[in-house]
Write a structure and sequence with these properties.
Largest sheet: 5 strands, antiparallel
Shape: elongated
Radius of gyration: 20 Å
Strand order of the largest sheet: 1-12-13-17-16
Number of helices: 0
Length: 241
């Protein structure tokens, strides 16, 4: 019966992860817009970029690396804007560009604890020729915990999700399978947590029992609202934890 999910889910190499907590992206583009330039009387354009970063250190550098001609690259510092749920922060960057028609390529990055993290659209860079907005459902973070009542032999999994508020009645679920298994399952319906600063909602999904405790979980997120179904399957690779 669950084979119907295979049209959205693509299998990848399963491996066991030793880390007990994981965030999908230490830095991630949220929104990019191109508008009228500031102080140039309509003769230039203006690029605005919002991004979320994981608060890995108090001392961090968040940047946008961009080009307007595909040859000369520039790096500009972003500035802190707000603290979000799940140890996330929003940072913002803006700069004037030659015109509103400039096909700006860019990537967003963060340096923390001596390490650089990048969101460069999986190696393709983002193209701000048109406005960019995150998809209706988005994986945020996941944590593996100690399962209850199994004497240390199992684990549980908590997954945090952000969804666009596209309607009052909605369901958020995880479609998943265990390592070394071909059987797909549906999680229980997620639980609403709170409204986010950008107009989206924070939801949490929970798997109470993973046996044995180090067994990997492969999953994708499904969001159903207003008669539509949206997926976040990590660009066709699924999430692996």
């Amino acid at each position: 019966m669950l084979k119907q999910f295979h049209q959205w889910l693509f299998t990848g190499l399963l491996c066991l992860l030793s880390s007990m907590s994981w965030a999908g992206h230490a830095v991630q583009l949220e929104k990019a817009t191109i508008g009228t330039g500031l102080g140039c009387y309509g003769a230039c354009g203006h690029l605005s970029v919002a991004m979320t970063v994981e608060n890995l250190a108090a001392d961090k550098q968040v940047v946008v690396k961009y080009t307007v001609d595909g040859q000369s690259w520039y790096t500009g510092d972003a500035y802190y804007q707000a603290t979000l749920d799940n140890n996330q922060e929003r940072w913002f960057f803006e700069v004037n560009i030659p015109s509103q028609q400039s096909p700006v390529q860019f990537a967003v990055g963060m340096q923390a604890n001596g390490t650089w993290y990048w969101d460069n659209n999986y190696g393709h860079n983002f193209l701000a020729k048109e406005n960019f907005q995150r998809k209706p459902v988005q994986f945020m973070t996941a944590e593996r915990g100690r399962g209850l009542g199994c004497y240390g032999l199992c684990a549980d999994l908590t997954v945090h999700v952000a969804v666009a508020n596209l309607g009052y009645e909605k369901t958020v679920q995880m479609v998943y399978r265990l390592a070394d298994s071909d059987q797909w399952y549906e999680s229980s319906v997620g639980r609403y947590v709170s409204a986010l600063d950008d107009g989206r909602e924070s939801w949490v999904l929970y798997l109470p029992y993973i046996y044995p405790k180090n067994r990997a979980i492969e999953f994708a997120l499904r969001y159903q609202v207003a008669g539509e179904t949206y997926w976040d399957n990590n660009k066709g690779e699924n999430y692996l934890f």
